[in-house]
Amino acid sequence: MSAEITSLTAQLKEREEEVRVKEDQLKEMKNMNAALENQLTEYMDALELQNQSVKRSVESSQRTSAEVAEYEQQMAQTTEYMRKQQLEYQEALQSLQKKVGRAEETEKENLKIHQLNLNLAGELEDYRHQTKTLMADLRAKEEEIASLRETVGTRGQLSSDEVGGERGTRGELDRKVSDYDQLMERVTELQQVRVQLENELSPLRAERANILSENAALREGSNPDKYLQLKTNYNKLSEQCVALQKYLTDESKECEQMRQRLAEEKAINARMEEANHELQVQLEATTDERSLQAIRDRVERYRNERDQLKVAVSQYQERDREQQETIHSIQMALEEATAQNSNQDSTGVWQDQVATLTLHLEESNKRMLRYREERNTARIMHKSLQEQINTLQATVEQLQNSRSYDTYTSGQLDTALLTRLQLTDEGSTERPTTGSPHEDAYSPEEYSEQTAQQGGGGGGEGRGGRRSSKQSFTSTASGSSSHKHDRLSSASNRSFSPSGATAELYTEVTMKDGVTRNLVIERPRHKLSYKSKPEVIVKRKGGKYETGVLAYVGVLDGKEMAGVILDLPTGSNDGAFKDGRYYFRCTPCCGLYCPMGNIYVEANSATI
């Protein structure tokens, strides 16, 4: 009885010691929270001072803008008056220029008409000369024909030579007659062209007479002194307009620079407000005791599974060495039996020995195959655990970075997190080796493919396990499933225990819509009823964390769809389909969406 009391007293002391340690840790966390709150207060004060300076700058910019607007109004009135004067002078000058232009055009037309008349006169003279020449040739041909006819009529019987000559003369005469016909046709064509040119020349002569009369009237009504005065006034007005335009350009540049400075100050103010909001959200998320406790629990569980995995791997290595030795001894015995059989006749005893050795060898091969399967499974489990440990390390680094962001620098909190969440030790990432000559006979990937073809059982996606939810969606950005994302929780599809059973963890899903957003939520326990509307944490583009509600959206492409309702202004989700993406219309909007069949819920979080 006293021993039990002593043990209970010792346990009670241990519990009290643990309670004191927990209280010390809690005090330490409270102190760190107080330090962070002080830093936040200082940051808010500095931000308020900066906001006041920005407001003063905005007010001065507004006053300057009002002065610039008044000055621009005065300049606009002056410009309008100068523009009217310029238009009047331009109209008078243009009227004079038009009259002068018409006179010049008239002179040019007269010169053209005169040149055309000269050309036509030359062509007519050529046509007359050609006609005279043709008529002379025609008369000569007629005389020649008449003489030939007389010669033919006066002659009597002709000799054969004379007949041949006469025939040649007649052929030549026929050719000359055809040439004469062609010349007559040419003369007819030339006469027609002459008539046509005379018809065209008559309206040109009338137009020339009209132009000459108008030109004379313009010369009588023109005033060179008035034209020179108008031109001088126009040049002066043009110089004044150029000077005013240059002055207005300089003033416009100065106004534009002031507007740019005002816009930059507004953008800086907006960025500071956004950074302040993000820091507040990160501070609330990182200082949550439940989140830190969950991370510590997962780290402890991964350490235990890693230790168990190391023990299992060492056992598998020992069994592999034993099996390799057994196989080697069987092979040696089989070789000896074969050598004896070459010198002796076959006997029943030898056949029994060979059959026994063969069965033993087959059993050893089966055991070796089972061992390799278990070894590959252990490697896959080790790889999965290592990925999860790396993921937690990245999460710890992210928490540290979020604490050291901008003015939030807390070395005490970083040291405490490093002390509590140290995950790795030397040799944790090394692969197990057995020293077997068949060590690399099957890689984990080849083994997964081979067992999937043979219908092998067991956990894991390579052997027919439940497909990861990430394969159901298309990521909006490359590398979206990497553990290097800036978020509170990172992704891992599956965890393996040493016994081969699977334990559901948590995952991430990146879906596409108008803006790239990431949904980080936990692994399921039961299917979602859209009436329950579980809350989820959404990290939007720009690093903002927002809380949304998972709700039913409707049927899209034959599937029931659900979305995350965010308290955002409308306008970006208008129900349109553009560039392969849908934009929903709702108030508040559903920023993310996915099929209902892939959505589950656990407590106040959901997963896809």
Automatic annotation (TrEMBL):
Query: Sorted alphabetically, which Pfam families does this protein's record hold?
Result: CAP_GLY
In its UniProt entry, what is this protein called? CAP-Gly domain-containing protein
Gene3D superfamilies linked to this entry = CAP Gly-rich-like domain
Signal peptide as annotated in the record: none
Task: Quote the InterPro entries the UniProt record gives.
Answer: CAP-Gly_dom_sf, CAP-Gly_domain
The question of whether Coiled coil is a record keyword is answered with: yes
Q: Which residues form a coiled coil?
A: 5-207, 248-319
Provide ranges: composition bias, Low complexity.
470-481
Q: Which organism is it from?
A: Geodia barretti
Q: Where is the composition biased (Polar residues)?
A: 424-436, 489-499
Segments of this protein annotated with the region Disordered: 424-499
What keywords tag this UniProt record?
A: Coiled coil
- Which stretches make up the CAP-Gly domain? 535-600
